[in-house]
Amino acid sequence: MFRLARHLLHLIVSPVLNGGRYLIAGSWKRGLALLVTLALAAVVGGLMFAWLGLASVSARSGHWPVTEWFLHMAMRNAVETRSVSVKPPLTLDDPKLILKGAGHYETGCSSCHASPGKGQSLIVQQMTPMPPVLATRIKEWTPEELFWIVKNGVKFSAMPAWLAPEREDEIWAIVAFIRKLPELSSEQYEHLALGTSASGWRQNQEAGLLKGLDDPLGPTLANCVRCHGAKGEGRGPSTIPILAGQRERYLLESLEAYANGERKSGIMQPIAAALDDQTRRELARHYASLARPEPAARVSEQTEAIQRGETIAQYGVPRQGVPSCAHCHGPRQTPRNPIYPDLSGQHADYLTLQLELFKSQKRGGTAYVHLMHSAVRRLTPEQMSDLAAYYAAQTVEASQ
Ligand code: HEC
Ligand code: HEC
Ligand code: HEC
């Protein structure tokens, strides 16, 4: 190795010396040759430095100030330039978006970026670059820039890209939530991200709604409950679905579809992928056995929408090539394939979002999802929200 290094050194040094002689001799061509040679020498020298193992990759020593300045300057400018074409949704103050983002922040971000009332782990503090306490940095970025960072991640740091980039609706939910981080107390954070306070948790357990931690499903369910509620009732109104009373086979195959990436969600995919087959089966059985909550109180202005939705659900829209939904989803038509989900009493916002996702082919799903792609292809946005209002108002009995 030493001989090879000496040889390489000779290769670099002799052209530099020669170039120096040319420059003194005064020819501009030779001067140019010197500059090119110097640049080459720097590249070869840098390569040798790394090849000989002299570059420090130790996270302990941190970056040199100049490296840190360069990386941050490059990152800030890249994010600024690349987020120019990003268009935010109409409102980022929507409590439904904030609630959905909070649940995932606890799963996927808080360990690195801290959360109100809980600092970063000692292990994370040994990273280079160290992830910032996010609440202190939010004001430095526009919503468009935050969206770009969360979607794409940051190279040369541990900041990960979003698992399902097609689910921009989820990324906006995260942005909506992190914009609120600087003003949240730890109690508010607990309520949004963990669902129940410690005392609420105890009450639910005493009432038999939560399995104990000694039950094999207990610790796993403790996580689901944060977003889907103690009784699988979802957290509404929101785009987090009700699981209680859903068909067992649909629940199981949906968890499998998330786990193997057939159904796209940066929020549910990591959770489902971390479960083994047996636990997925038990979770599906558990949620299918719970009673579905009564539909949320109906608002009188919605009545017309519900009626319009009912007509489409029952008869389809033949001139648009939209089939009857009731044929597969009820109410009152049997027998139906057990993979077809029960939509009755589901949150309207969740139903509308899923229809939009089917239409833009961004949702994915089980092996039967193509049925929905063709069913919704020609639905208008108004028809989707009418259908969602209709199904959200149905009681489970009516759909059996
Ligand atoms: C494994 C650790 C890790 C996880 C998990 C992580 N990040 Fe980061 N994040 C980082 C690091 C490291 C940086 C710093 C990059 C830099 O210094 O340029 C960063 C930077 C950021 C920034 C830019 C802040 C700034 O001023 O530099 C935002 C915004 C951000 N992360 C949001 C998130 C969100 C939201 C999540 C969850 C969806 C998340 N991060 C998950 C490590 C992480
Ligand atoms: C961080 C919040 C969060 C946690 C924790 C969570 N979920 Fe979800 N879950 C969601 C969201 C949001 C959706 C809707 C995703 C989409 O749009 O596809 C969802 C969707 C689902 C669906 C599909 C329902 C349907 O009608 O298609 C199932 C099944 C599910 N979750 C089961 C679980 C189980 C079981 C657990 C616990 C192991 C769990 N979830 C934990 C947020 C969460
Ligand atoms: C031929 C049968 C069929 C028809 C007709 C049909 N669907 Fe579906 N639908 C399905 C199947 C199968 C799924 C499950 C997709 C998956 O996740 O793989 C589904 C899923 C859904 C979901 C998602 C539920 C959830 O919990 O995520 C909604 C919402 C929905 N359908 C609404 C409708 C509406 C509205 C119509 C009428 C315009 C309709 N469907 C027509 C078979 C059908």
Keywords:
single chain, 400 residues, mainly alpha, Cytochrome Bc1 Complex, Chain D, domain 2, 4 domains, 19 helices, 55% helix, 0% strand, binds heme C, transport, Cyt_c-like_dom_sf, heme binding
Beta fraction: under 5%
Determine the structural class based on helices, strands and strand pairing. mainly alpha
Specify the oligomeric state.
single chain
User: H/E series, N to C?
Assistant: HHHHHHHHHHHHHHHHHHH
Explain how this protein is built.
Residues 96-182, 195-291, 304-395 form the Cytochrome c domain. The chain crosses the membrane at residues 31-54. GO terms for molecular function: electron transfer activity; heme binding; metal ion binding. This is Cytochrome c553. With 400 residues, this protein is mainly alpha-helical. It has helices at residues 2-25, 28-51, 65-82, 95-108, 110-113, 143-152, 168-180, 186-194, 198-206, 218-228, 248-259, 268-273, 277-289, 303-315, 326-329, 348-359, 369-376, 381-392, 396-399. The protein has four domains: 2-51; 92-193, Cytochrome Bc1 Complex, Chain D, domain 2 (Orthogonal Bundle), CATH 1.10.760.10; 195-289, Orthogonal Bundle (Cytochrome Bc1 Complex, Chain D, domain 2), CATH 1.10.760; 300-399, Cytochrome c-like domain (Cytochrome Bc1 Complex, Chain D, domain 2, Orthogonal Bundle), CATH 1.10.760. The termini are far apart. The mean pLDDT is 88. It has 19 helices and no strands. The longest helix has 24 residues, at 2-25. It is elongated and about 95 Å long. Helix 11 (248-259) runs antiparallel to helix 13.
